[in-house]
Amino acid sequence: IRVGFLSGHITAKEKRDLYARIASHDVDIVIGTHALLQAGVQFAALGLVVTDEQHRFGVTQRATLEQQGAGQSMRLPDVLVMTATPIPRTMTLTVYGDLDVSQVRHLPPGRKPVRTFVRTTDRRPLIYKYVRTQAEAGRQSYVVCPLVEQSDEEDLPSAEEVYDELRYGILRGIPCGLVHGRMKDAEKEAVMQAFYENRIRVLVSTTVIDVGVNVPNATTLVVEHADRFGLAQLHQLRGRIGRGDLASYCILVSESRTETARERLSILAATQDGFQLAEEDLRLRGP
Fold first, then answer.
1. Which of these, 48, 72, 160, 199, is most buried using a 10 Å CB contact count?
2. Which among 32, 35, 34, 5 is positioned nearest to 18, based on CA atoms?
């Protein structure tokens, strides 16, 4: 079976060659990023589209991919979308019969459910004291922040500020790392590799880690200003821990005064079920 790979990182020549091979059916399966949605990609006979992490694709992007297969025959391909947390629009489609739904509700063997807690900002010293004890015991932790750097408009702790606060303060002497979307790919890769190898015990980041990061030794996730994130996003972030056989803890830090935000976080603390969260998301936000 002939497999091709398409992403924004391959050279222009490699891209042109692959476009030609896709159009002439010299490739059976194409695996790629959002680069598959570019105008130059024309499939000879697209029969199946599989979208992983469906919540990362917009409505028009998914439609584009489906239309690329219609070609002369005007036959749409079969479509399989996969996600840990269906977005409200997907739930609405299931109501109108446009999607058949399969659910995997059990965890892989050996995994324990992640316990989730909502805490106010005055508990931060205790939270990071716990993160330190975990690091000293050889475990790893994530700390997720809503912003990369300090903003004049938002009075929120940025990833850069929290990183400096922790490594020069309560986590002094513990190997800490910082990763966010504005870093060069090589820098990000180096930090992530160090985290995979347990050379970094505490990783401070933005939401760049919400998919595709698998470190079974990571047992704690702290989300700063958790009310600034959507339910689906928080559930995805929580999926970074509990990937081994160790007990894992998700701590949502929030000072939100609004009833809706408090309700969202309490829902997340009460369930691990992505479908139940999606239904609550649909109830709160509408389709």
1. 160
2. 5
Tokens 């391959």, residue? Answer: 10
Q: Which residues contact 257 (CB under 8 A, 6 or more apart)?
A: none
Alpha-carbon gap, residue 44 to 284, rounded angstroms: 42
pTM: 0.79
Tell me how long the chain is.
287
Contact 149, 230 (CB under 8 A): no
Cβ atoms 226, 143 nearer than 8 A: no
Using a CB cutoff of 8 Å and minimum separation of 24, what contacts does 14-19 make? 15/40
The pLDDT of residue 204: 96
Q: Can you name the residues that pair with 176 across neighbouring β-strands?
A: 202
> pLDDT digits over 85-117, tens only?
777 777 777 777 667 778 787 778 888 889 999
Please report, rounded to a whole number, the percentage of residues in the chain having pLDDT higher than 70.
93
Task: Judge contact between 206 and 188, C-beta under 8 A.
Answer: no
Which portions of the chain are predicted below pLDDT 50? none
Q: Which of 179, 189, 199 is nearest to 138 (CA)?
A: 199
Rounded to 10 degrees, the C-alpha dihedral 33/38/44/45 comes to 60
Q: How far apart are CA 67 and CA 57, in angstroms?
A: 15
CA separation for the pair 92, 30 (Å, rounded): 29
Where do runs of H (alpha helix) occur along the chain? 12-23, 59-67, 88-95, 124-136, 159-168, 185-196, 231-238, 259-270, 274-285
Let me know: does 103 contact 275? Beta carbons within 8 Å.
Answer: yes
Q: What pLDDT, on the 0 to 100 scale, is given for residue 148?
A: 82
Residue 122, both tokens: 């005055």
